[in-house]
User: Fold these one by one.
Assistant:
Number 1:
Amino acid sequence: MALWGGRFSEDTGKNVQDFTESISYDRRLYKHDIMGSKAHAAMLGAAGIIPQESAHAIREQLDKILLRIEAGDFTFTPELEDIHMHIESALIEALGDEGARVHTARSRNDQINLDIRLYLRDEIRIICDAVKALQTALVSKAAAYPRTIMPGFTHLQHAQPVLFAHHLLAYVEMFERDLGRLEDARKRINVLPLGSGAIAGTTLPIDREFVRKELDFPAMSRNSMDAVADRDFSCELLSALAIFAMHISRLSEDLILWMSQEFSFMVFSDAYCTGSSLMPQKKNPDIAEISRGKTGRVYGDLVALLTLCKGLPLTYNRDLQEDKEPLFDAIDTVLGILSVYPGMIDGMKLNEKAMLDAASDPGLIATDVAEALVRKGVPFRHAHHKVGALVRYAQDAGKALDQVTLEEMKSVFPEADESMLALFSPERSVAARDVFGGTGYDQVASQITYWKKQLELN
Ligand code: ARG
C-alpha cells in the first residue's frame, strides 16, 4: 500500500502507477529533496515537534541515502511514485517510527516547490558560468581580429562597413542581458515555500525562519496558497532560456551564412563540423544548425509550461507534476548547446580577404558621402536625395559608385569636391565612425578592453 494509502481499500494497478509516476524524471531532484528534508528535520527537532534524537537519526540516515543514490545502490520504482516517496520510504525502512516523523508539518505540495527552487538555484549558477564561457570565446575571437572589416547588413543587404569584432561583441551584449535575466529569475526563485503545508500552513508550531536560514533563502513566501500553486519562477527561467536560445539561433544563422560558399567569410575547424554521407566535398556547420533547431524545442518547453499553468484553479493540482519535463529539457538543451558552442567559436578561422572584398563594395560608402554633404551644410534629407541620385546615375552609366569622376559627381550635386572621392575606403569609413557604441577602431578596441575586464580575461 502506498504511503498515502490509509483511506484506500484497493491498491492502484500497474497501469495507473505507470501513468501517475514521476520518479522516472524527478529523481534528478534527489540531492535537493534530501537537503530540504534535512533542514526540515532539524527544525522539527529544534522546535520540539519531534524528539531531537529522531531529528538526528533522520538527518544521519538521509546522508546515507544520498550516498546510496550516488553509488547507484538505490532502487527506483514506479510503485513509489516520486522522489519524495522514495526517500521517505527508505527512511522508514531504515528507522521505523523515527523515519515516519519526517513528513510532519509538510506536504509534497510545499516539498516539491522547495525541491525545484533549490535545484534551479544551482542550475542557474551552472548556466551562467557556461554563458560567460561563451562570452569569453566571443571576446577572445574579437580580440584576435581587432581590425578585420566586413560588410554590415540590414535586410541581409550590404549596409555599411563594420568591424568583425563589433559584430561579435553585439552578441556578447545580448548574452549579457541574458545573464541579467537569469540573475533576475534567480531572485524570485530564491524564496522559501516550505511551511505552506498542503495549502493553508500547519497547526504545529514550526519555525520557518529556522529553515530559511538553514537553506540560505533570503526570503520566505508570505501566502501558503500562492506558494504551493506558484510555478511563475519556472516560467520566468524558461522565458530567459527561450530568449537566450533565440540569441543563439540568430548567431547560428549568421555563422551558417558566413560559412556558405557565397559568403566564404570563415570556416569552423574540422572538429566542429561534419560531412555528408553522399557528397564527398561537404563540410557542414551542423553544430550551428542543430543549435538553431533546438531553439524551437526550448520555445516549446516554455509554451508547454505556460499552457500547463493557465487553467489551474488554486491551489496545487496534479497537473503541476508535468512542469518538470519541459523545465529539465530546456535546461539540458541549453547546457548542451553551451557545451559545444565556445569550442566552435574558438576554432573559427576567418577569410579576411573575402570579408574585406565584400566590404569594398562602394555602395557601402553612400551614407559617408551623404554625411560629407551634411558637413558642407546640406540638410541631411536633401543630402540623402542627392547621393541617391548619384547612385542612380552610376547605375545608369554602368559604373561602380567609386568610378564616378568629380565632374560627373558635380553634375549631380554642385557641392561635390575632391575629398568625397577619397571616401571610398572601407578602412576610412570604419575609422570615421568614432562615436561611443560605433564601429570605429578605437571604440571597438575600448569595448574589447571593457569586456576583457568584465570577464577577467588575462
Ligand atoms: N510528484 C508530485 C509533483 O511533482 C509531487 C506533489 C504531489 N502532491 C500530491 N498531493 N499528489 O507535483
Number 2:
Amino acid sequence: MKTLQRTLTIIKPDAVRRNAIGDIIEQFEKHGFHILSMKMLEISKHQAEQFYAVHASRPFYDSLTNFMSSGPIVALALEKENAIADLRELMGATNPGIAKEGTIRKKWASSIESNAIHGSDAEDTAHFELSFFFAGYELAK
Ligand code: UDP
Ligand code: MG
C-alpha cells in the first residue's frame, strides 16, 4: 500500500545558475508533488559537510561540499504518496550519462557532481534532511 510521504529536494547550484528553477518546479507539480515549503538560500562549506556527512569518507566529499556551497540553492519539502521513491525516479540516475530520457538529470545535469538536483533516498534520510532545512512550524499544515 502506498502511503503519503514527505521528501527533501534541493535544486543544486548548477541548476540555479542555468535558470532551471522554474522548469524543475514545474516537473514536481506535473508529477503530483505538493510543495509544502520552499526556500532559496546559500549554505557554507561547513553546512554542506554536515548535510552530506554520510559521504564523509568518499573521495568526492571535498569537491561535492565545495560545489554545494558555491552559490544559491533551492530547498523544497515535497509531499505525495510514495514521494521518496517517486522523486528518485523523476530525478534520474546520479550519473547523467545513464539517466533515463524524461528525467530531470537527463535534461539538466552536466556531470556526475553537477547533477542539478538532490532527493532523499529513504525515510530516515528524508526525516534528517527535511529537519536540516525546515523547522517544524514551516512544515505544519
Ligand atoms: N557525487 C559525485 N561523484 C560521485 C558520486 C556522487 O560528485 O562519484 C555527488 C553528486 O552530486 C551526487 C552526490 O555526490 O548527487 C551524492 O551522491 P549519492 O551517491 O548520494 O547520489 P544521489 O543520491 O544524489 O543520486
Ligand atoms: Mg544520495
Number 3:
Amino acid sequence: MTAISPPGSTKFQIDLRRHLREEEEDRDLTRVICEIADASKYIINAIRTGDLGLAGTSNLYGENQLALDVLSDRILRKRMIHSGVVANILSEETSEVIEVDPGGKYSVAFDPLDGSSLVDVNLAVGTIVTIYEGSDLLQSGRNQVAAMYILYGPRTSLVYSTGRGVHEFCMNQLMEFTLTKENIQLQPSGNIYAPGGQRNLYTEGTEKYVSSLEEKGYKLRYSGGFVPDINQILLKGSGIFLYPHLRDKPKGKLRLIFELNPMAYLIEQAGGKASTGRQSILDIKPESIDDCAPIFIGCREDVERAEEYIARYG
Ligand code: AFP
C-alpha cells in the first residue's frame, strides 16, 4: 500500500539524503544519488532559461542534439566526475564510455534530458539514471543496484529505488527534495494506456491488444515524454505504457540501457512488470550501448495480457 504524505507530517519532511541514511544505504551510492539530485537544480535552470535551439551536433543515434541536451549532459557528467565514487559514465548524448576512476565503486548511465524536444512546447521532460556496481555498463538490467528519474513538470519530483521499494520526493521552495510517497505499489491492472509509435505500424498482436483495452474503457494518456508517461502510471498505480515492435522498427524506438532498464527496475520494484512482449526487459544482455527494444510496462496483469496477444498474433 502506497504511503502518502499527510500535510505537515514529520515523517514526510524527510529529505532525500536522510531517507537514504535511514535506509542504511551504502554511503557511496547515497553520494551518487544525491549528486544527481543536486545536478537537477542546474538542469531546471537550463530548461527555464536555456537556448531551445539545435546544438549543431548529433547523438549516438544520429539524432540532432538540442543545446539543452548538451548542457544537461555536461551538468550531470561534471557532477559524476567530481563525485569521487564513480568508475565509468555513459550518457545517451555521447557515443562512448567515459572512464573516470578505476577505483570508483559505481558506474552510471543516464539520459540527461529525455523528451527534450517537448521543452519548446512546454511539456514535461525528465532525467533518467541507472546505476551499477563496478565498471561494466553493459550488464543486464537485473544487475542494477539503483535507478531513479527526475521529472521536470509543474512540480519537480524525484523517484528512486535501491531495491527496497520505490519512493517519491518533491522539490520544496528551498529546492530540497522531501519525501512525498513511500513504497509506491501498482494495482494488478489499471485503466489508462499510453500507446507510443504509429498505430498503423502496429503488428496484429499489438493492434488487437490495444483494441481490447479500448473495448474495456481504458483511457488514453500519452504525452510523448517517457518520464511523465511512466510517472503517471506509477503514481496512479494504474495502467500500461507501450512502445512496441513496429512493422518498420522490430526493435521499437526506446533505448535499453538509458530508458528501459531504469524504468523496468522501478516498475518491477513497485509490483509491476516490464516486457518486450516476449521476455522481461531486465533479462536482456545488452550487446551495444545503442541497443533498443520494444516495451510493454506497467500493471502486471496488463503486461501479461499483452504478452498473450503477442504470443498468439505476433
Ligand atoms: P526525444 O528524447 O527525442 O524527445 O524522444 C522522447 C522519447 O525517447 C521518449 O521520451 C518518448 O516516450 C518517445 O520518445 C516518444 O516517441 P514518439 O515521438 O515516436 O511517440
